[in-house]
Amino acid sequence: MQTEQDAEKIRTLGAPSDRVIRTGNMKYDQAASRGVPKEAGTLRTEIGLAPGERLMIAGSTHEGEEESVLDAYRIIADAIGPMKLLIAPRHLDRLGRVEELLTQKGMACVRKTALNRMRNERVILLDTLGELDQYYALADLVFVGGSLVPIGGHNVLEVAAHRRPVFFGPYMSNFKEIADQLKGSGGGWRFPAEKRWGCRWSG
Fold first, then answer.
1. pLDDT interval class at 85 (50, 70, 90)
2. Maximal CA-CA distance, the chain
3. Which one of 106, 122, 163, 184 has the minimum C-beta count within 10 Å?
4. What is the CA radius of gyration of the chain?
5. Cβ partners under 8 Å of residue 28, min gap 6
6. Handedness of CA 132, 138, 144, 145 (dihedral sign)
7. If pLDDT is split at 50, 70 and 90, which confidence band does 119 have?
């Protein structure tokens, strides 16, 4: 089992104590073994980041989260200056819905696969699979989705492995131990579900 709490629960259900072993979470090993396949300069060029321009990422977002992400992005960008936003919906079939939301908000966006036609859109939609982890390495701040809505959260270790600050909502039951450790160490911040984001930039 991952934690002693999990081990005690399985013993309570009748598992023999001598056959219950606490192994820890293997996601720590996965995060530690990951490398960035492309050089940072190449990645910055791919998404059109100018020298010194900051990047905010909203990864694995679900319905009901992007609106709060966009509100936070506007607040932060107004405070610190040029910054792009990369949104990676958890399910790619939601890309059209996210584009509609951006249009309603008056925010121009471009899909990552169409960047060669980009003018100066500030918001990029990641419409490919398997690339999000490497872009985390470029981010100045990251929000991990599935956590402002009752999904249970997604893997914040992918962000922590790149030593980037990670933000998440209150619904982190799938990664509770990891989220608590990050919050306790100062590497992660949790937002309450009932409040809009309010951010103060100090970096």
1. very high
2. 63
3. 106
4. 18
5. 157
6. negative
7. low
pLDDT score of 34: 56
E strand spans, the chain:
54-61, 83-89, 109-111, 123-125, 141-144, 166-168, 188-190
Contacts (Cβ under 8 Å, ≥6 apart) of 51: none
d(CA 58, CA 151): 16
Specify the fold of 40-190: Rossmann fold (3.40.50)
Segment 45-72 mean pLDDT? 94
Q: What is the pTM of this model?
A: 0.80
Domain ranges of the chain: 1-33, 40-190
Q: Could you count the other beta carbons within 10 Å of the beta carbon of residue 111?
A: 16
Q: Which two tokens stand for residue 129?
A: 């699979």
3-state helix, strand, coil in the chain (%, to 5): 40, 15, 45
In the chain, the amino acid numbered 6 is D
Of 20, 8, 27, nearest in space to 175 by CA: 27
H helix or E strand, kind and range, residue 117: none
